From TrEMBL:
The lineage of its organism: Eukaryota, Metazoa, Chordata, Craniata, Vertebrata. GO terms for cellular component: CD95 death-inducing signaling complex; external side of plasma membrane; membrane raft. Residues 84-127, 128-165 form the TNFR-Cys domain. This is Tumor necrosis factor receptor superfamily member 6. GO terms for biological process: activation-induced cell death of T cells; extrinsic apoptotic signaling pathway in absence of ligand; immune response; motor neuron apoptotic process; necroptotic signaling pathway; negative regulation of apoptotic process; regulation of stress-activated MAPK cascade. Its main location: membrane. It is a single-pass type I membrane protein. It comes from Myotis myotis.
Length: 222
């Protein structure tokens, strides 16, 4: 009898172990499927179609250019509750989910800029260089004054390029300086001659010979 009892206990233990292994194998095989199903459910709950974004409890379509978000949509696939940007002060140029509009840019006249196109609800201010100003390094935040030419213009100044000037002649420049300086030097020498005559009590009306003027000129230099 004791032997039969021991055999029964061994058979029961083997059956229990086999059942446990089978259950564990079934759970192991089932877990990846459950995880995959859970991920799919989560994706369906939180994901939105392309072009839409979750706002609160629903997937919402964006505001159009020229608008800003005022409130969330009320159902999946509906457009956000939007309101227009302030004309001439704000703008948006793309579809978006933001509650704010962008501030319009300013064309600074002190930097040589002026308005080419005014700001609208869907487009920012467009600036350009004022007359006689240019900018050749876009984007242009300031423009430079066009150069002035002393010896003639090869190409006029444009909004994107400075004036091209002709090169000046060196001989002409020297001649110009001579025409300016020679009369000044002659007047100075005559003034000094008359002053010396006055100091020496000589008559001012007495003619002055060229030799005297030249001699006095060199005396002045030394």
């Amino acid at each position: 009898m004791p032997l039969i009892g021991v055999l029964l206990l061994l058979i029961l233990a083997l059956c229990t172990e086999s059942s446990t292994k089978a259950d564990n194998a079934q759970v192991t095989n089932t877990y990846p499927e459950l995880l995959k199903l859970s991920k799919n459910i989560t994706k369906r709950e939180s994901g939105c179609p392309e072009g839409q974004q979750r706002e609160g409890s629903f997937c919402c379509r964006p505001c159009l250019p020229g608008e800003r978000k005022k409130d969330d949509c009320k159902a999946d696939g509906d457009k956000l509750v939007c309101e227009p940007c302030s004309e001439g002060k704000e703008y948006t140029d793309k579809e978006h989910h933001s509650p704010t509009c962008r501030r319009c840019g300013i064309c600074d006249g002190e930097h040589g800029l002026e308005v080419e196109k005014k700001c609208t609800k869907t487009q920012n201010t467009k600036c350009r260089c004022k007359s006689n100003y240019f900018c050749n390094t876009p984007p242009c935040e300031h423009c430079n004054p066009c150069s002035t030419c002393e010896h003639g213009i090869i190409e006029d100044c444009t909004p994107t390029n400075d004036t091209r000037c002709k090169a000046g002649s060196t001989s002409h420049l020297h001649l110009l300086w001579l025409l300016i300086l020679v009369p000044i030097a002659a007047a100075f020498i005559l003034w000094r001659v008359k002053r010396r005559r006055r100091n020496n009590n000589l008559p001012l009306s007495e003619p002055t010979s060229p030799d005297t003027v030249i001699l006095f000129f060199f005396q002045t230099l030394t």
